[in-house]
Design goal:
Layout: E1 2-4, H1 10-21, E2 27-29, H2 37-41, E3 51-53, E4 59-61, H3 63-74, H4 85-113, H5 122-141, H6 155-170, H7 181-191, H8 194-197
Parallel strand pairs: 1-2
Antiparallel strand pairs: 1-3, 3-4
Helix pairs in contact: 1-3, 1-6, 4-5, 4-6, 6-7
The structure holds glutathione (GSH).
Length: 203
C-alpha cells in the first residue's frame, strides 16, 4: 500500500494516523501538491493529496474514500467508524464538521497565499475564517470526555485532532492558545499515542 502526500496536509495525516492505528504497513511517498504537482498527478488526475494505492494496485483518491477502504480492511470490530446506527451518525457528523472547518480554513489560506495581495477579497476571507472558527466552536462544544464521541477513540478524534493541529500550526489566528481548551487537551492526549506522534509534520 502506498500513501501519497505530506503529513502537513490534515487530509493526508488522518489517513496516515488511521493506517498506523490499524497496524497496516504502508509506503509513504511524501509528495507535495504544490511543488511535486506532476508526480502527484500520476496518482490523482486532480493533482491533490492524499492519493492511495491499494495492495491490489488500485489507485483511490480523497481521504474519505481512503478511510472507507481502510475501515473495510480493519473490519467492524477494529474500525474507528462504528458500523451503524446513532453511534455511526454521531461520529460521521463530527468528522463532517471537522472536515468542513478544514476546507474553509484551507480556502482562506489559498485566498491569502495564491492571489496577489490587491486581489484578496477581505469580506470573503473573513467569511471563510469565520466558518472555520464556527466549526472548531462546534467541536469544542461536543465536550470531549475523554474522546469526542465517548470513552473510545473514533475517527471523529483522528480527524478533529489532525484539523486542529493543522490550524494551530499553519493558521494560528484561527486557533490561538487558550481559545479551545478542550480540543487542546484532546490533541495532547491523542498526540501521546504512537499513530499520532509518528505523523506529526516535520518542518
Ligand atoms: N477532499 C479532499 C481534500 C484534499 C485537499 O484539499 N488536499 C490539499 C492539500 S491539504 C491539496 O492537495 N490541494 C491542492 C489542490 O487542491 O489543488 C480529501 O479529503 O482528500
Amino acid at each position: 500500500m502506498i500513501l501519497v502526500g505530506r503529513f502537513q496536509s490534515p487530509f493526508v495525516r488522518r489517513a496516515a494516523v488511521t493506517l498506523k492505528h490499524y497496524g497496516l504497513n504502508f509506503e509513504h511517498k511524501a509528495l507535495s501538491s504544490m511543488t511535486d504537482k506532476d508526480a502527484v498527478k500520476t496518482f490523482n488526475p486532480l493533482g491533490r493529496v492524499p492519493a492511495f494505492v491499494t495492495d491490489e494496485g488500485d489507485t483511490i483518491v480523497d481521504s474519505a474514500v481512503i478511510l472507507d477502504h481502510l475501515d473495510e480492511l480493519a473490519g467492524p470490530s477494529k474500525s474507528l467508524t462504528p458500523p451503524k446506527g446513532k453511534e455511526r451518525r454521531k461520529v460521521l457528523h463530527a468528522v463532517a464538521v471537522a472536515v468542513g472547518a478544514c476546507e474553509k480554513a484551507v480556502g482562506g489560506l489559498y485566498e491569502k497565499n495564491r492571489r496577489p495581495a490587491e486581489k484578496v477579497h477581505q469580506p470573503w476571507l473573513d467569511q471563510l475564517d469565520g466558518q472555520a472558527k464556527d466549526g472548531l466552536d462546534a467541536l469544542e462544544a461536543m465536550n470531549p470526555s475523554p474522546f469526542l464521541c465517548g470513552s473510545k477513540l473514533t475517527q471523529a478524534d483522528v480527524t478533529a485532532v489532525c484539523v486542529f493541529d493543522f490550524m494551530r500550526g499553519q493558521l494560528p489566528h484561527l486557533a490561538p492558545a487558550g481559545r479551545y481548551p478542550k480540543l487542546e487537551a484532546l490533541s495532547k492526549r491523542c498526540n501521546e499515542m504512537p499513530a499520532f506522534a509518528e505523523t506529526v509534520p516535520k518542518g
